[in-house]
Amino acid sequence: MTIAEQKTALRKERLAVRDALPPVERIEKSLSIASHGLDALSFQTGTVISGFLPIRSEVDLRPLMAQLRDMGARLCVPVILDKQTIVFRELVRGAELVPGTFDTFGPGPDAAELDPQIMLVPLSVFDARGDRIGYGGGYYDRAIDRLHQKGLRPALIGIAFDCQEVASVPDEPHDVRLDAVLTESGYRRFGGKPSL
């Protein structure tokens, strides 16, 4: 089995487990994630933090994002431009959200495009080393690479439920490890990147 096939199998398996979580349990776990995130994340006022608006059975980050905004963060969320590219548009209170690809919603084209300093990254699978599997489109990998090409090194924090962890994620040379993961059990660091 190739690495790509292994990743596809792990993605399918872990997303099925996540999908099976009852909605009430997902809400409770999302609130725990918000609480742990507030305890763990330290940043300066004006720091640009990318979150995401939930689709399907993802963690609902909106409670955490609202509290980060109240603490002075400048929020943005990913918007898919085409089959290769996402940008991060500023999410301001009261702004209209427009429908996008894959049943997503996000700020419209008039919203400012920002470069995140902290990225709260959705994923399907992660392991104890900080390796992750996304949803298969490579959008975040390319977005992170573009930021690196600009000389930017955002802190990468995976957002998931505990049930999405596996013993080992097969990694490839282009894969970028997470600095930390945030689940309902708490915040776990993988690297030595300092808080912003």
What does this protein look like?
Helices cover 28% and strands 22% of the residues. It is built from 4 helices and 11 strands. The strands form 3 sheets. A 7-stranded mixed sheet has the order 3-2-1-6-9-10-11, sandwiched between helices. Strands 4-5 form a two-stranded antiparallel sheet. Strand 1, helix 3 and strand 2 form a beta-alpha-beta unit. The chain is globular, with a radius of gyration of 16 Å. The termini are far apart. The C terminus is likely disordered. It holds the Pfam family 5-FTHF_cyc-lig. It is an enzyme of class 6 (ligase).
Brief characterization of the structure:
28% of the residues lie in helices and 22% in strands.
Strands, helices and their partners?
Layout: H1 3-19, H2 23-40, E1 48-50, H3 62-70, E2 74-80, E3 86-90, E4 97-99, E5 105-107, E6 118-122, E7 125-126, E8 132-133, H4 139-149, E9 155-159, E10 180-183, E11 186-189
Parallel strand pairs: 1-2, 1-6, 6-9, 9-10
Antiparallel strand pairs: 2-3, 4-5, 7-8, 10-11
